[in-house]
Specification:
The structure holds three protein chains of three kinds. Helix content of chain A is about 70%, strand content about 0%. By secondary structure, chain A is an all-alpha fold. Chain A folds into two domains: about 55 residues; about 220 residues, Orthogonal Bundle (MetI-like fold), CATH 1.10.3720. Chain A is flat and about 70 Å long. Chain B is mainly α. Chain C folds into two domains: about 200 residues, D-Maltodextrin-Binding Protein, domain 2; about 260 residues, D-Maltodextrin-Binding Protein, domain 2. In chain C, strands 2-1-3-14-6 form a five-stranded mixed sheet. In chain C, α6 packs across α15 and α19 runs antiparallel to α20. Chain C is globular, with a radius of gyration of 27 Å. Chains B and C meet through α7 and α14 of B and α3, α4 and α19 of C.
Amino acid sequence: MKVKTSPIRLTASDRLFYSLINIFLVMLFFVIAVPLWSTVTLSFRPNDFIGTNFEGMFLAPWKWSNAAYKALLGNNGFIIAFANSLKIIFFGVATALFFTIPLAYSLSIKTLPGRAVLVIIILIPHMFDVGIIPSFLMVKNLGLIDKLAAVFLPTAVSTYNVLIMKGFFEGIPVELKESARIDGASELYLLMRIIIPLSKPIILTIGLFYGVTFWNDFFHPMLYLNSNHLMPLPILLRNILIASGMNEFVEVNAFGEAPVQSIKAASVFLAAIPMIIAYPFIQKYFSKGTLLGSIKG
Amino acid sequence: MKPEKRLIPATSTLWREIKRHRAIYLLLLIPMVYFIVFKYIPIWNGQIAFKKFMPRQGVVGSPWIGFANFSEFFNSFYFWELLRNTLMYSVGKLLISVPLSIILAINLYECRLPFLRKTVQTLTYLPHFLSWVIMYGILLVLLAPGDGLINDIIKFFGGRGIDFLTNVRTFPWVVLFSDAWKEMGWGAIIFIAALMGVDPTLFEAAMVEGANSWQRVRYITMPSIQPVIILVVLLRLGKILSVGFNQMYMLYSPSVYSVGDIIDTWVFRGLQEGKFALATAVGLFKGVMGLVLVIISNRMAKRISGSSLY
Amino acid sequence: MKKRLFTVLVVLLLTAALAAPVFAQSAADSGKASGPIDIELWYGAAMTEAGPPPSDWVGYSVIKDKLNINLKLTALPSSEADQDVKISAASAGDNLPDLFMVRREVWLRLVEQGLVAPVDDMYAKMPTRTSVQYDEDSRAFTTIDGVSYGLASPGSIQKNEGVLIRKDWLDKLGLSVPKTTEEFMAVMKAFTFNDPDGNGKNDTYGYGAFLELNNYEEGLGRRLDPWFGAFGVPGTWNLTKADFGLNVRKPAYFDALSFVKSMVDAGVIDPNWLSYKKDDFRAAWKQGRFGIMREQNAAYAATSNYAPFDKNFPDGGFVVADPPMGPNGDAAVGVYTRAFRIYALRDTISAEKKDAIARLLEWMSSDEGYFLIGWGVEGVNYTLKDGIPVADGVPDPEYAFTGPKGQPVTQLRNLVFYNGKVELSSRYPTYVTATSGKTMSALDVLRDFQSRSWVPTIGADTLPPPGTDLKRFYEQSVAEFITGRRVLNRANWSSWVAEFDKLGGKAWEDAGREVAVKNGLLR
């Protein structure tokens, strides 16, 4: 990942530097890991456990119960909801990148006349959130109510991600683009054959940002979808979690052996699925070729 | 990163420049149509903030009522307090979460123990996925006045338990640091990505010239991710009056309303009474404030560091 | 050339991939021929976690064959706030379904905007249903200026909460069930400091609660209402002719608040109470943290809710107690009102559809509809025992109305239930607990709760709510008086009431009086 083969010997101040880094990271490890561990143990906690969450962290693994995961994964609608979520994340990320990459690339060209105006055009929606009704009217007038497209299209492009990507495209050496242009390459060719291959890490990262947002979006499906067979995972999760908190109608607990708190904790790990799948790929890019290294090397 | 040669085309050559980039404009066509349809039509519909919206008459046909929705917000008994709280958390998170993300990114980048680096990197992004419901559970374990872990420690040393979550003095810190804990690793991803773009030969050159690690961070690492930092800060400033609704809604309670009620929670309680136009009006107000702030700070960033949004 | 072709191809493919779902019709939208009448129904699910009725649910075909109706179901979101948002957004887009469940606050706005249909003519078309579901109170609930704009069915059961005390703790400490506030205080102190569970640790408290507020149970909410009941000021409103008004503006409210403050100061209330959410509170009593609480009958005694407590404390147990009696002899568990669920029709509905809906609802209240919607199919989802549907004896327990496959087919049961004897006996069966072998019945507990002292405030939930700012001022100040951030003494309190009035408290009370008088809510 970095230049580690340097023959230069470490000075005392370098050693202090690296020890401080290690100490910081080790401390951070515990600060993050302990509460996370408590969430993991909470998700596996059996219903008859007596004691505080703190005591729960020391519960032996052979006393764990998978009732919470059973309740979630064994739910009647789980398969359909999971498939809908996959559709949303696939089309959502495809749409998002389809719009974000050309936008970011165009805006990264400093000589483009009208660039500042274009940036302001995409900046304004970032700041103006006009609320539920105006967006609902737009979706309704487009005839998108009760269609999956209504879930991902309105939120498909995030100004934040466009501008982040633009920043990275700007970092690609101008000479590279110029020499290709002189060779007579079209802009589209330049984008597809030079810019995108060079920017895989950032495209993956931004794709992940989009994916995580779509995956966990509860609000838009709730608002725009009516048909039961279109509902994605967050709706299902919410139905399970909220139901467990309703008091007026508690009669039979549908979760059998799983305590409510465990189900909530277990749902965290469902939310993190795209990240858990995508992360190894990203880390590969993160630790392998640095952007400039691959150009020069 | 050198500026391109033809920065400002002369007016006479403007047309030629436009023609030269016609492929780019073509490329921009579809995204721009998207923006108009999906982003600007809702903003246009935002005119219901100035209207008594009647569904049957539509957005355009509903009667105008002027600034009534805005004045309901500005005349709220709690307006200044809401503004103060919102700004307090916005600025606080900018000053705590963002620097922590940057520090984490640099630490991970510089760490020479691959195992430690990978473990911590993988671990730190996970809290982002904890919903605030779960976070509240964790906070209760740590901070509950009766049997919270930290209070147990305080009591062990003979102190008095502190009601962290329901005390106006401690509550803001709980909000700020729980956010930092949750989002620090996620926020660092973008800085780590930026660090991947730093030219390694720069480091070699610096080392050959005898720069120590501290100087390397100071003079190479920081400047090279500075544009990303500025970008992130500017975009956060654009949303300065929207600050973590989900977190606050979960964490606050009547006894800490005076330091916990922010614009978004106030609007939400209005929404529960059906004040949708009020929400839109507040959204417009927040947008104008954000826009002004971005324009000013963008100009400042340009002057000081040379990088800017547009 | 080849490369350009490739790029163009990629772009085209991407566009096609994008376009596909955008223009894809939702599958359910079809068959609009002369056949059965489509009725779109947005219902409140009985058990949101169990999922909607499957597409091959027998109810669909029965309704189609018998009533010539093609029923299209959409489950409303599980939380009330989300339901409000969904319905409000749909109404703004003039996109409401034919028939939908709606909360009264939202419904009121729809009436104002003229978006829901009058239903007065429907009652006569549904004689059976009207006789079991729609009485005078119910019709008053949805009547504005003499016109009924919605069908209000009985909602949750009235007076289904009560004061519970740990009997084993009382016995261990040699105490009897307390009656007055003073006796309660003594018991709570003993529960807190005398180690009632005998574990040698100082980890128990007298009283447990959390803030649970709504428009007719403001201030500190329903979990602390017994203490306000002891001073004659339970709930938000006093709806008597003699003494109408907001309780918070009455002198006795200060005494009640002072008493709760003394509980906090004495440390007998679980110190986490201000931080607890509902689940934390419920987890806490199951772990034996406190000995007195106000809890709901099913949350306390239903099979799966009581099981953890039973396992943790096989020798322990709660008894139902009378609410504490105050210095003037007042006592009340709290206030109750009649909770209704409104089902409304969109105003543009055709006469044909309106008739179809009347037909549908009338059928739902017939014996056939009542059992099919409420429990499913006899012999598959339930069996009858003394006329009461039970889950025992069905061939596949998965399909029992309490099982994971059976629950989805009873999702619409809130449309037919009216808290009658059959339902309650079926919902709350008598059972033997797993660990201690106790005989429990949430129904017996309910009957016991209902026999205790309560203050009726029927219609309090139809009175105007406070403005957003006033509501916050009310809730925040009361909490601050309790935590000591504001000093609670008579002088401070009366100046606070003056401030409350200035902020609109008096105007709120006057608006409430107007509505209460107009609708005849005063007793």
